[in-house]
């Protein structure tokens, strides 16, 4: 079924431009390095963060090009990473449900689509994936993959680019834990010792939809310290490239896999969940340039191939953002589907000024039950504050309303925090209709597989793995509730 769907997709999608401005030198092909971070928004000095200092990432931006409006196509790890490693929307390749295909039911990529490391290998590149610090010479020291489809581990040659043959170019993925270094508002003391100080909770500036509660403030301060630690490690990575004498022939990409893990961030399509940092540094890249056009994280995939002189496959949906004939996107798209046991379906289209969100399950609460998030101290604190009447009316409405609107529309120019839903505002009706049609067209043209509920077989297959991995009565209750709601509060794709 996926193959037939893909044939339809390829006949409909607009193929991105394939020429590029910075062609690789055939006599000395450049290296490509991805620094890819977990659970982190753009809280760095070069993106306007004032509470902390991030000198290494700021310098990376000064030495290269920084994209101010970069967005992931999925606000949670595995769908985002499945999209990135193929340059395809996760909804097109059937990898849109978080941690899916892990049980007896498997997911296979549509015919002819292959992960990007395979394309680099075919072009003669040495491919690596690693955590940090690199375990020198250890071929088994691999970094996070988290792909939702079946893939061959041999697409990565090693865990360390130093193991390559003399003169061989390399494609390296460096996976950093980022925001995952904080656990329930705390961070490892060894990290604070390295940093030399802790961020003061009192100095934290929160979005207006979060209360200045001590738990929330302490958690955000710990998160900012993970940004500082990430910055320190980026400095180490650049030093190693410099030490190896390859930095000036290497394109370094810096990006995160979604926004901060918080109530309205990770797993949701508000900018807190999908807006990410995106920086490119390397030979011929404009220094100190700030790009204001809209880009998607899968564009990093196509751009990397182009910089290496590798032809971008016609099936790839990511675009080379450095192409001479590059046409900036008028809009970017994002999708959120099942996360762990929690069935979900949300789609968004974002233009320069507006964000349109469609909730496929409008009869369910804003924050559905989810063991992963509900066990975080920040969610426990928020629920307690709600139950004791200590949240503002706005915070209650945005976080704990028992039902969600089928459609949301925000004017980001005057409402960057997405606080006032304009979907029912007659003065914005034309904008609503336009963006509604834009989203419908994208779902149709890209063959969005999330327009239908996940099959019972796939859900049960993945839940069996999840239950075995995390034995928890709460998960069992949530699974039962999801099945009950599937009958009582079914999916409603169209408004």
Key terms:
disordered N terminus; single chain; globular; alpha/beta; 495 residues
What does this structure look like?
The protein has 495 residues and is α/β, with parallel strands linked by helices. It has 14 helices and 13 strands. The chain has helices at residues 2-12, 55-62, 77-84, 116-122, 189-195, 214-243, 271-274, 299-307, 371-374, 377-387, 393-400, 429-445, 456-469, 473-488; strands at 31-37, 65-71, 126-130, 170-176, 182-183, 186-187, 250-256, 275-281, 289-296, 332-336, 346-350, 354-359, 407-411. Strands 3-4-1-7-8-2-9 form a seven-stranded mixed β-sheet, with helices on both faces. Helix 5 crosses helix 6 (214-243). The radius of gyration is 22 Å and the shape is globular. Residues 1-26 have low confidence and may be disordered.
Oligomer: single chain
Give the averaged pLDDT, no decimals.
94
Summarize the helix and strand pattern as letters.
HEHEHHEEEEHHEHEEHEEEHHHEHHH
Strand line-up of the largest beta sheet: 3-4-1-7-8-2-9
* Low-pLDDT segments: 1-26
User: Given the C-alpha coordinates, what overall shape results?
Assistant: globular
The helix content is 25-40%
- Estimated share of beta-strand residues: 5-15%
Largest sheet: 7 strands, mixed
Work out the number of β strands.
13
Distance between the termini: 27 Å
Which structural category fits the helices and strands?
Answer: alpha/beta
């Amino acid at each position: 079924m996926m193959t037939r769907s893909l044939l339809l997709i390829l006949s409909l999608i607009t193929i991105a431009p394939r020429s590029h401005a910075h062609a690789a030198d055939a006599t000395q092909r450049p290296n490509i390095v991805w620094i890819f971070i977990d659970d982190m928004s753009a809280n760095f000095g070069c993106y306007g963060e004032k509470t902390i200092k991030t000198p290494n990432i700021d310098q990376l931006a000064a030495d290269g090009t920084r994209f101010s409006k970069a967005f992931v196509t999925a606000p949670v790890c595995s769908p985002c990473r499945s999209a990135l490693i193929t340059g395809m929307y996760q909804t097109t390749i059937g990898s849109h449900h978080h941690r899916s295909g892990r049980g007896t039911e498997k997911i296979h990529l549509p015919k002819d689509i292959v992960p990007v490391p395979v394309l680099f290998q075919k072009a003669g590149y040495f491919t690596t994936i690693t955590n940090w610090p690199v375990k020198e010479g250890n071929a088994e020291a691999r970094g996070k993959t988290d792909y939702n489809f079946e893939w061959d581990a041999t697409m990565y040659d090693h865990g360390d680019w130093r193991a390559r043959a003399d003169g061989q170019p390399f494609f390296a993925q460096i996976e950093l834990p980022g925001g995952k270094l904080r656990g329930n508002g705390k961070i490892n003391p060894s990290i604070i010792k390295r940093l030399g100080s802790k961020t003061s909770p009192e100095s934290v500036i929160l979005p207006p939809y979060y209360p200045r509660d001590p738990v929330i403030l302490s958690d955000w301060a710990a998160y900012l310290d993970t940004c500082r630690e990430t910055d320190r490690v980026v400095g180490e990575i650049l030093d190693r490239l410099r030490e190896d004498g390859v930095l000036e022939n290497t394109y370094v990409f810096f990006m995160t896999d979604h926004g901060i893990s918080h109530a309205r961030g990770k797993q949701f399509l508000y900018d807190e969940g999908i807006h990410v940092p995106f920086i490119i540094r390397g030979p011929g890249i404009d220094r100190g340039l700030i790009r204001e056009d809209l880009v998607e994280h899968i564009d990093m995939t196509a751009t990397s191939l182009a910089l290496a002189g590798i032809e971008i496959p016609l099936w790839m949906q990511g675009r080379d953002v450095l192409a001479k004939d590059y046409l900036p996107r008028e809009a970017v798209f994002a999708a959120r589907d099942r996360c762990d046991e929690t069935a979900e379906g949300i789609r968004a289209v974002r233009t320069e000024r507006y964000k349109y969100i469609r909730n496929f399950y409008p009869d369910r609460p804003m924050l559905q039950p989810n063991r992963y998030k509900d066990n975080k101290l920040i969610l426990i604190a928020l629920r307690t504050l709600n139950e004791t009447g200590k949240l503002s009316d706005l915070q209650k409405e945005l976080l704990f309303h028992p039902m969600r609107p089928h459609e949301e529309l925000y004017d980001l120019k005057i409402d960057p925090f997405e606080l006032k839903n304009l979907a029912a505002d007659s003065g914005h009706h034309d904008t609503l209709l336009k963006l509604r049609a834009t989203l419908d067209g994208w779902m149709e043209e890209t063959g969005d597989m999330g327009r239908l509920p996940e099959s019972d077989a796939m859900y049960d297959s993945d839940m069996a793995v999840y239950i075995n991995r995390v034995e928890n009565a709460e998960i069992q209750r949530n699974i039962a509730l999801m099945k009950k709601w599937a009958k009582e509060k079914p999916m409603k794709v169209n408004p």
